[in-house]
Amino acid sequence: MSAKHKVLLPQPIEKEAHEYLVQNNCEVIVCSKCEHDEVAEKIADAEAVVLRTGIKITRDLMEKGKNLKTISRTGAGVDNVDLDAATEHRVVVTSSLGANTTSVIEHALMFILALSKNTIKIDSEVRKGNFKVRYQNLSSDVREKTLGFIGFGRIGSGLARICHDSFAMKIIANDDYLPDHVKKSFSDWVEFTDIDAVLGKSDYISIHVPLTKETKDLVDYSRIKKMKKNAFLINTSRGGIINEKDLVKALKEGVIAGAGLDVFENEPIENESELLKMENVILSPHTAALTVECTLRMAMEGVKRVVNYFNGLPHENVANPAVLDL
User: Fold this and answer.
1) Across the strands, what pairs with 258?
2) CATH 3.40.50.720-classified regions of the chain
3) What global pTM score does this model have?
4) What is the average pLDDT across 204-220?
5) Which fold has domain 5-99+292-325?
6) Is 127 a catalytic residue?
């Protein structure tokens, strides 16, 4: 029998995914704590890492992984992997791109509806015995409003289709990386324009771009100021895309009506964050993709790519394709 391939799990994964590795000739190494020092010790023997979001695989960790061949993200984002270092060390980085699409779409839609209906405020008032809150008309319709997108990939376009078809919402979007032929396929119901126009025309803005050097602080105070006063800003992508200090300032000043945030510049969100005190902001702890079904789906795709790698099958969803030419 051939030697077992050693796979490191900095964080536990679902039982079915763990068992899949064991059943496919893998020795699974599990960290008791998802902390740098323990990962640094255990990555030395690993050929593969199945990675969630609890830790970043940095250059120094990569250098300690002398036998490391592949890192498989259970999620879609790879911002917790140093891709340059991975390429230099000939480590193939993959992700479960697309596995979380429907779950994140549902979460973003929840934000749109909950903000529009002022769900948190109304629920709170009813619990206080203020049934007369119903006469204040605190909610609004989404039907025929304008929904704007920064990023129009799988998640953005999927959410747009639901809102367009179900609520007759007008859709406008910015995505400088979307090929022209793809944009053309949406041309009968989506208006593509620049970011500032999207911000200025929309009643809701939903962000669906990865966190990169180019998108860091993409939505700052100057851009939020371009939004309508009754508009809502929604982010289920990555926290650093919105400058949080600028968002807090804008919300305090009434520049926009509110926000729905699943992601933050620092996670967990700091206890002193002023966002925690704001009634016009709905917060969730980076859980858009963490449904029962999606968590298992992402984990299974992550471990299957590792097993396929060891079996010499073609790589899928490679985040650093330059490594394949080395």
Assistant:
1) 232
2) 5-99+292-325, 101-283
3) 0.91
4) 96
5) Rossmann fold (3.40.50)
6) no
